[in-house]
Design goal:
This protein is α+β, with helices and mostly antiparallel strands. Helix content is about 15%, strand content about 35%. The strands form three sheets. A five-stranded mixed sheet has the order 5-1-10-11-12. The protein has a four-stranded antiparallel sheet with strand order 6-4-7-8, with no helix packed on it.
């Protein structure tokens, strides 16, 4: 292999590693928080089964303090409570003090980038209001779902089909 090809391959592999580390960073260094869920259970033909996770703090609460008018597409920083299951306490256009999660305004709701959680195919799970998500949030408000909990205990999603199906 020529020297230029090796260098190009090395740069490509380094870029892939950087993308992976950027996406996984909250998982490595983040703070664990629990968020209340209200999900549905779809299937994507290309990606398999996953849960669409809807969080209580996804709906903008007009009674909470905010430092500006919220417009579609704005980056928003949501300050989180200290309760065991975290709730929104304020909205800001700049990172606030304390623990917060970063999202984007989408009409009357907020999207955090943690609205999907992949599960084993044919696990047939539909969640009710007793589920929460264990989420790791890094110091910049970026979040990743690490576990789904029911009544505070980790949920294991298992295949529910029969052999030969």
């Amino acid at each position: 292999m020529e020297r230029n090809q090796k260098a190009t391959l090395g740069v490509a592999l380094l870029l892939l590693l950087c993308f992976f580390l950027y996406a996984a960073y909250p998982t490595f260094v983040g703070t664990n928080v629990q968020l209340q869920l209200a999900p549905v259970d779809p299937t994507d033909i290309f990606r398999g089964e996953y849960l669409i996770l809807r969080y209580e703090l996804s709906t903008i609460d007009a009674s909470l303090p905010k430092d500006y008018d919220l417009n579609y597409g704005d980056t928003i920083y949501v300050t989180l409570s200290d309760e065991p299951i975290r709730k929104a306490t304020a909205y800001s256009h700049v990172p606030p003090e304390g623990l917060y999660i970063k999202g984007m305004v989408n009409g009357q709701s907020i999207v955090y980038g943690i609205e999907q959680y992949f599960i084993p195919e044919k696990s047939g799970t539909i969640l009710d209001g007793s589920y929460t998500a264990l989420v790791k949030i890094d110091g910049r408000g970026n979040a990743r779902v690490t576990k789904i909990l029911k009544n505070g205990e980790p949920v294991t999603f298992t295949y529910q089909g029969r052999m030969g199906n």
